[in-house]
Amino acid sequence: MTNKHFHSHRKSQLKMATSQKLTEHFLTCTICTEVFDNPCTLVCNHTFCRKCVVNYTKTRPEAISAKSLLCPFCNKMTKVSAPERPVEEWADDVKPTFIIQGLLDSFGPGSTDTASCCYCREEGEITPAVVWCLVCDEALCDKCTGAHNRIPSLRKHKVIDLSGEVKVRRRRKVTCKEHKDETIKYLCKDCKKAVCQICCTIYHRKCDSVVTLESEMMAVKTELVKMKETLSRRRHKRNTEVQKKKSVMAEEIRQHSQTESDIKSASLKAIQGIKLKEQKLLNELKEMSDKHIRQLKADIKSGEMSVQMYQQQAELIDQALQSECDMDVYEMYQGCEADDVEAVGDVDVKEGGRITGVTFRQDTDKLSKSLDDLQLVKIDVMYEGVLDLKSTPVLQDTIDVRVTGDSTTSSPRNVTVMVVNDTDTVVVTDHNNDSVKSFYTRNNQTRHSKLSLGGKPRGLTKLTHNQVAVTVRNIKLNVTVEVNPDLVLLSTIKTSKKYWGITSLTPSTLAASSRYPPCVDILDMTGNVLRSISPLQNGINILKRPNYLCTTRTGNILVSDGGTECFVCLTPEGDVVFTYSPTGDTALKYPQGITSTSTSDILVTTFYIESSI
After folding, report:
1. Where are the domains of the chain?
2. For labelling alongside 468, which of 119, 255, 294, 393 has CA 20 to 30 A away?
3. Band of the pLDDT at 592, cuts 50, 70, 90?
4. Which residues, 6 or more positions from 211, have their beta carbon under 8 angstroms from its beta carbon?
5. Which residues pair with 504 in a beta bridge?
6. What class is the 412-612 domain?
7. Considering only the top CATH level, what class is 3-161?
8. What is the CA angle 56-61-65, rounded to 5?
9. How far from 528 is each of 414, 457, 510, CA to CA, in Å?
10. CB–CB of 466/442 below 8 Å?
11. pLDDT tens-digit readout, 75-94
């Protein structure tokens, strides 16, 4: 044996040993303890032979009732894609993982062995392989190569030289589910299904285009490359969006932290100011109290001295009275009369000019108001498209909604503003000209688009950032329109009633107002009435002539009613939140358009006044 043949033989032995270890530890089914036969990997990532996991599942009633394959190792269920098929076929669509399949292809039974001749190996001999036949998918020695080339049908097979370090991967052969011994080699392009030769003969003989899989690989790979490029672009686009969102989030976190710090700083300054005021009041109190106490101490001392003097004088008089000498009594009398007993030792304590008391009066109401009015810090929040009710309205521009082709005077009934492709766009329903119109500016030129609807449009509402819904009352139609900002008709939906106002509740539901009968209907996007709302008060319908609708930020429905000259707030379930019927100078004279702001203010238009409630 030459050195080359010896090394090839040694390599073959090492590979066989590696294959044996991998087979024992990773490629053996724990049910049948054999190498995987047509393996399938369940959702728990445990792999078994298809027939083994199916046979085990058939013995477990709970798995059959759940229409699932049951893992014998962890008892986790794997839902099958076609539970109506026989149990024996449940595992057909469950594929093995790429790792298991790759190991089987490389080291399992019949795996590629480029070191030794496959034909000699079948005869029990180990001979070094010199070539690999790409068509037969086998390794051949010198002798078998000669025999291979002597067969006319095999002579033109493409072979590669194995003298260098060439890695050859065996092609995985997929067998037909119905014809287990047949390999899938054909593609029915009419049915878009990969099939075996028998399936071609039985089921696809009338199909116009049945080709080999191999012949379609170039086109399929080209399409896959395109798909990969598309996915790569989408991934890049979405990643860019995610990064922008992350940047916005980081800025939001930074702003929150900064604002929080500003609030705490302002609060600390306010607290420090209050503490300074507290200390000042305490100092004033102490000064006044100390002065008052000093005065009181002096008065008390003086009074105590007077008390002692009175006591001493009284004792002297008492002694004189007890004397047997009349002269002693008379002298005491003369002395007391001369000194004026009432004035002896008497100190007049006057209250004038002295502090008689200190009272701390706390005005709790004033203090609470001061705290409420205390401006620690001002937080300004900027929102897109939100009306600033505190600002003075300024006329910026006027749009003449009459355009070329209008047959009569325009009669705009509803309006909304959208930002489409970074372009501010005004969308208007023109009742008299049976159309919806959009107005926008591009390249410093005012442009418009007009979409005829074949009827009288009234209500208008946004559905998405570039879609609106319009009610065409007289022909019982709801229309969805795409704004690009030019208008494109998307769909027309026939309705059972003549709807006036319309508003979007959710991405899949609308609310529309009807006068005959007076009600608000909740609709799906196909025009079906999910529920009809006719709220009662004392047994009488609140709604008489519901005109326009809008959705509040809490998801409720505001309805302006021209019959009762009020507006009503309803929940989508039909409950009345409140009704509002102002009187006097603020009475609603046939209310029309209605909307609410982000601050929960309600704006209503009437024929005579505009009210902000």
Report:
1. 3-161, 175-207, 219-339, 412-612
2. 393
3. confident
4. 186, 187, 189
5. 510
6. mainly beta
7. alpha beta
8. 115
9. 24, 20, 10
10. no
11. 889 988 888 888 888 888 78
